[in-house]
Design goal:
Substrate binds at residues 9-11, 37-41, 137, 247. It is an enzyme of class 2 (transferase). It catalyses: D-ribose + ATP = D-ribose 5-phosphate + ADP + H(+). 36% of the residues lie in helices and 23% in strands. It has 298 residues and is an alpha/beta fold. Strands 5-4-1-8-9-10-11-12-13 form a nine-stranded mixed beta sheet, with helices on both faces. It has a four-stranded mixed beta sheet with strand order 3-2-6-7. Strand 12 and strand 13 form a beta hairpin. The longest helix has 16 residues, at 263-278. The radius of gyration is 18 Å and the shape is globular. The protein binds adenosine-5'-diphosphate.
Length: 298
């Protein structure tokens, strides 16, 4: 039902009292290695909710690649589209300081080798999917070719993360374009916009997408389409760790759209999934099942 095209990374996390200055060495906590990357995270999040999900991605022929394949298969993601080799698996080197702030260096590795040809070669996956979703941790040319490879009935969902300027052809295919507040500001770039996210959503919509969703953390989300701008409220939860909220939201939205749900209803469900995600630690480890979502208080 759902094809996710995107990145797969190993997240290498070390806790530190404070970060070293140039030339300095500090000691940190034991190393934790977690499967991550927005593509793999969104595929796992969708599968955990019960979506039939495939991932088109590239990992290295190495231990990190095997860790990712194991986590994807463990969640029930179809991995025939996970290509292996050509470069080391992408890595995110993350230090978390005593204040809880992250500093991250990403080595894209094999993600950078997911090519337009790989997208074109995956036609059977495209034809098996009602919705294809992508993010921007893979080459932009590949995203362009994903859009060109879409069968006529297939809906395209883009989570523009990390944000960058998008060609008109990609924008026009987005149904919806999903951004958080930071990503919205970057995509709006030089435009003179105020502080009202509803205005951001309207201006982004005017750039060509069929619909736009702006996620607003604890304030829920906005859905902009030809019908106007609708606000989707957030669930009132006590956040423990907001990592993965955007990935869970996007995955849930794409899945519900693939079942034919209207956009605003799909976004309301996605907001429940995002809320359930922030009540647990970690990224993939924090994604809820459909049963967890149903149990979450409204
Ligand atoms: P990102 O993780 O990309 O920054 P957001 O922080 O906007 O994205 O979170 C995505 C969605 O997850 C929000 O639209 C909201 O529905 C839900 N969410 C995030 N943080 C909270 C929170 N503190 N309380 C309730 N829901 C939240």
């Amino acid at each position: 039902d759902l094809l996710v095209v995107g990145s797969a990374n190993a997240d290498l996390v070390i806790g530190v009292e404070r970060r070293p200055d140039p030339g300095e060495t500090v000691l940190g906590s034991d190393l934790a290695v977690h499967p991550g990357g927005k593509g793999a995270n969104q595929a796992v999040a969708a599968a955990r909710l019960g979506a039939r999900t495939a991932l088109l991605a590239r990992v290295g022929d190495d231990a990190h690649g095997r860790l990712l394949l194991d986590s994807l298969r463990g969640a029930g993601v179809d991995t025939v589209g996970v290509l292996v080799g050509g470069a080391p698996t992408g890595v995110a080197l993350i230090t978390v300081d005593s204040g809880g702030d992250n500093a991250i260096v990403v080595s894209p590795g094999a993600n950078g080798l997911l090519t337009p040809a790989d997208a074109r070669a995956a036609t059977s996956l495209f034809h098996a999917s009602r919705v294809v979703s992508a993010q921007l941790e893979i080459p932009l040319e590949t995203v362009v070719d994903v859009v060109r490879a879409l069968p006529p009935e297939t809906r395209f969902v883009l989570n523009a993360s990390p944000p960058r300027a998008l060609p008109a052809e990609v924008l026009a295919a987005c149904d919806p374009l999903i951004v958080n507040e930071h990503e919205a500001r970057v995509l709006l770039g030089g435009s003179r916009v105020g502080e009202d996210p509803a205005d951001w959503a309207r201006i982004l919509l005017a750039k060509g997408p069929r619909a736009v969703v702006v996620t607003l953390g604890a304030r829920g989300a906005l859905v902009a389409s030809r019908d106007g701008v609708a606000h989707v409220p957030a669930l009132d939860v006590t956040p423990v760790d907001t990592t993965g909220a955007g990935d869970a939201f996007t995955a849930a939205l794409a899945w519900r759209l693939s079942r034919g749900e209207p956009l605003v209803e799909a976004a309301a469900y996605a907001a429940r999934v995002g809320a359930a995600t922030v009540t647990r630690r970690g990224a993939q480890a924090s994604f809820p099942t459909a049963r967890d979502v149903a149990a979450a208080r409204s």
